[in-house]
Amino acid sequence: MALVPPPSLAAGNSYPVTATYRKTKNLPAVHSFFLLRGMTARKNTSIAVTHSSCIRAVSPLPHKSLRYAVLGAGFAGLSVVWHLLEHSPKEMNVSIDIFDEFGVGGGASGSSGGLLHPYSPKVKLLWRGAECWRESLRLLGIAEEAAAANGCLIKRRGILRPALSLKHLNILKDNAQNSLPSCRIEQIDQDDTRKPVPGLLVPLNLSFFMPEAISINPQLYLQSLFQACETEANRFHGRELRLHRKSINDLLELEGEFDDVIVCLGARATILPQLIGKLPLRTCRGVIAHLQLPQDIREDFLEDSPSILSDAWLAIKGKRDLHLGSTWEWNSNNYSNHVSMEETSKALEELLPKASGVYPGINSWTLAKAYAGLRAMPPLTVNGSLPLLGSIDHIIGDNRKCKFWLFGGLGARGLFYHAWLGKLLAQAVLFSNEDLLPSELTTWKKKNKVERQ
Asked: Are 251 and 264 in contact (CB under 8 A)?
């Protein structure tokens, strides 16, 4: 009898395997979990077992714990942590150690723009847009509940994209017809556009408005999600969650301590000794400017003003407060969030003309602060620029004492992809079964193997 997780698990459903196997074999859930984890680790192996042999096989395991190391406390890392806690059998002891020298949200994730919607710059629905949109909203809701009195995590004001050229307009019109019911794209004229955003230019008298799109505070979101993880870990006896403000400079230093190591370091994954030159990722540094409107200037946004997408984006944070981004410095090796005066001036010279093309009033705003992050950009595929997921045992070495996994290449869409892909990777880790991941996200491994040969 071959025991493998059913297709429903790969589709994103949570844990039907444990319940089904426990019903048919009358074993505790934790027994069946470890049995399935061991079997699915041996891909395409059919194992004939009797009821008594099953009991002998799993009898030593009820007191075993699984230890996971998650490298990185950004969008990818905390999503994986949450889903490992949520989807592991409740009877099982789970210990998770998070390693990030900058703490929660200290990397590129915490320095992102925070705009969330399921569309490309041409308002085309992104790959697996419905799933990613749904799971991102769900994880944001979990963090928002944990945040409670910590501040405003989510601004539900929508996002607006003016059409800038006739060619651009026609493309936007075509793509907008396939929008999700849960994130509509409405076409509005110049007058309706200017009601929530006074002074906005609409060159062709038409804008595309996503009323359900949202803007978040990335730092607050990640801190709240970590708080939710702590609460989830404390719900069951035998669960442990630890955060270490420490960098891991060599993956092999974790071998022997953990059952699985999950690399969620973004651009920093490319400088780990075992992964240098092995991942199809390019680095890109982006600078974002935090601007404020001086008190002696009357013009300001309305309370419900949406954020704006154009050649540069404006994330509206308040009536006199916005973030402007982002620059693209390819192949940068600057991992620091600090932005020098020279880099700030260069960024403003690039961003302000783009923003003033749709909002001339931006020139009256003053700089409060500039910050930056180094993104890991994945290669372009027929489905767009997709993150990299999967086991990296073929790179580290197949005969190691633990399994190694990668969740990387979130690029500029980390907030959009992180929740659903973190859920899928957590399930793949729990069952030691890479086949639970969409093939579109693991094809990079085949190319990597060909290049190595």
From this structure: no
Same domain membership, residue 124 and residue 223: yes
What value, to the nearest 5°, has the Cα angle with vertex 225 and ends 224 and 229? 115
Q: How many domains does the chain have?
A: 3
Domain-terminating residue out of 378, 411, 428: 378
- Residue 13 phi, psi dihedral angles, 5° rounding: -75, 155
| pLDDT tens digits, 257-301 | 999 999 999 999 999 999 999 999 999 999 999 999 999 888 777
d(CA 118, CA 138): 14
Q: Which domain holds residue 89?
A: 66-157+217-281+379-453
Peptide bond into 326 cis (omega under 30): yes
Q: Which residues are paired to 372 by β-bridges?
A: 287
407 close to 80: Cβ distance less than 8 angstroms: yes
Confidence of residue 149 (pLDDT cuts 50, 70, 90): low
- Non-local (6+) Cβ contacts of 55 within 8 A are 27
Question: How many CA atoms are closer than 13 Å to the CA of 292, on its beta-carbon side?
Answer: 6
Alpha helix positions (H), 59-128: 75-87
Cα distance between residue 431 and residue 436, in whole Å: 9
- Owner of token pair 């999503």: 79
Q: What is the pLDDT of residue 197?
A: 85
User: Where a domain ends, among 354, 378, 402?
Assistant: 378
Are 295 and 373 found together in one domain? yes
Round to whole Å and give the CA distance between 443 and 408: 14
User: From CA 398, how far away is CA 414, in angstroms rounded?
Assistant: 29
For 189-215, b/e burial (b = at least 16 CB within 10 A) is eeeebeebbeebbbeeebbbbbebbbb
What number of other Cβ atoms are within 10 A of residue 282's Cβ?
Answer: 17
Whole-prediction pTM = 0.87
d(CA 148, CA 152): 9
Residue of 236, 206, 218, 14 lying closest to 123 (CA atoms)? 206
Pair (211, 335) in one structural domain = yes
Q: Tell me, yes or no, whether 178 and 327 share the same domain.
A: yes
Report the amino acid identity of residue 435.
D
